[in-house]
Amino acid sequence: MNYEQLLCELKGLAKGSYSDFLKKNLAKPDANVLGVSVPLLRKLAKQFKGSEDELMSFPDEYFEVTFLKLTAVSNMPYDEFISRLDRCVKLMDNWALCDCFKAKCIATHREEFFPYIEKYLSEPHEFSQRFALTTLLSFYVEEGYLDYIFSCCARADTSYYYVHMAVAWLIAEVLVKFYNKGVGFLNKEILTVKTHNKAIQKAKESYRLTPEQKINLNNLKR
What are the pLDDT digits (tens) for 47-86? Predict the structure, then answer.
């Protein structure tokens, strides 16, 4: 499938109402969004198995094309995924592209992937850092990785809005799964006040915490 054929297929799947909805959620009213739903994009990405490099060569004229690139690469085996990772991370300029990029192969290569988390967390780019944090959220929220998660959250630049939100989201998930460890981290007051309180807010929104735990978290607000 060449680029013109892909655009023709995407436009046939598009809905204008969804385009407006997505632009609003991306907070990018000038984004080139056709309006194709995520399930349809994920289904379409499977058609590029074996021709991912051809897909990567297409222009990033539309949100959907870039989404397809990231989804197709995320479906690849680990070594092939890694060889294309830098190019993919550089394509991220909004939260939706970043958050869709969840390569299942990382789950069986977590220790091996640490250098890439470090690399992207240290870059002075909002969505590189968010990618590092959302990868932790997707694959590392286990007791053995908690100290590493806390270290990454402490080092992330939460002056970036989408990094701030990712740290809050990650700590909230830790609080839900490992409440005492999460509270212990909050008690150290390492995060900025804004991110500290946002993490508490997001944790309190979870139905997985007890009313008593939520009251205690409320008392930890700064």
Answer: 999 999 999 999 999 999 999 999 999 999 999 999 999 9
Phi, psi of 35 (to 5 degrees): 105, 40
Q: Which two tokens stand for residue 59?
A: 């222009």
Distances (CA, A) of 213 to 172, 173, 176, 207: 12, 14, 10, 11
**81, amino acid identity:** F
Q: Measured between alpha carbons, how far is residue 37 from residues 12, 42, 59, 162, 215 in Å?
A: 12, 9, 20, 23, 39
Helix axes 193-204, 179-187, angle to 10 degrees: 160
Buried b (16+ CB within 10 A) or exposed e, 20-50: eebbeebeeeeeebbbbeeeebbebbeebee
Q: What is the pTM of this model?
A: 0.94
Question: Maximum Cα–Cα distance for the chain, whole Å?
Answer: 57
Residue whose entry in the numeric block shows the structure tokens 């397809």: 68
Let me know: does 97 contact 71? Beta carbons within 8 Å. Answer: no
Neighbours of 129 (CB within 10 A): 25
Here the tokens at position 199 are: 């993490």
How is residue 101 written in tokens?
């990029």
Total number of residues shown for the chain: 222
Residue type for 216, please? N
